Amino acid sequence: MKVWMTYNPNCGTARNVLALLRERGIEPEIRDYLKQPLSRAEIGALVGRIGVPVKELVRWKESAAVAASGITPEASDDVLLEALAAHPVLLNRPIVATDKGVRLCRPSETVLDLL
């Protein structure tokens, strides 16, 4: 099974998801999105596959980055996608993709539904 995930080594949830995958013998393709930011098109494609509003992929508690980007929860999807691409720290994580679908894996155990 091919598994892809967004990853931030400083994120406990991302580390937990990676551990859950590895415990099951799965080595995912990891995208450290802070070092290799996702493009607006890539984020838009993930949103389409997850089937949630764009605002659910925004890490709103990153208050300095939210302020710097000028976004609010009422912003349009286009504005939010641009902000996520321009400010990768705003992307909620981890996002995991398998043949069974794509999910924002919060809490960590959510990843098990994709296996």
Description:
Helix 1 links the parallel strand 1 (4-7) and strand 2 (29-32). This protein has a domain at 1-33 and 93-115: Glutaredoxin (3-Layer(aba) Sandwich). The longest helix is centred in the N-terminal third of the chain and has 12 residues, at 12-23. It has a four-stranded mixed sheet. The protein has helices spanning 12-23, 40-50, 63-69, 77-86, and strands spanning 4-7, 29-32, 95-98, 101-104. The chain has 115 residues and is an alpha+beta fold. It is built from four helices and four strands, in the order E-H-E-H-H-H-E-E. 35% of the residues lie in helices and 14% in strands. Helix 2 (40-50) packs across helix 4 (77-86).
Short description:
This protein is of the alpha+beta class.
Mean pLDDT: 96
pLDDT below 50 for ≥5 consecutive residues: which ranges?
none
Give, in order, the helices and strands: EHEHHHEE
CATH hierarchy class name of the domain at 1-33 and 93-115: Alpha Beta
Cα-based radius of gyration, to the nearest Å: 14 Å
| DSSP E strands, number | 4
Helicity, as a percent range:
25-40%
Q: Biggest sheet: strands side by side, in what order?
A: 2-1-3-4
Shape: globular
CATH topology of the domain at 1-33 and 93-115: Glutaredoxin
What portion of residues belong to β-strands?
5-15%
Give the full name of the CATH homologous superfamily of the domain at 1-33 and 93-115: Glutaredoxin
Class by SSE composition: alpha+beta
Number of helices: 4
CATH architecture of the domain at 1-33 and 93-115: 3-Layer(aba) Sandwich
* Distance linking N and C termini: 8 Å
What profile does the largest beta sheet have? Answer: 4 strands, mixed
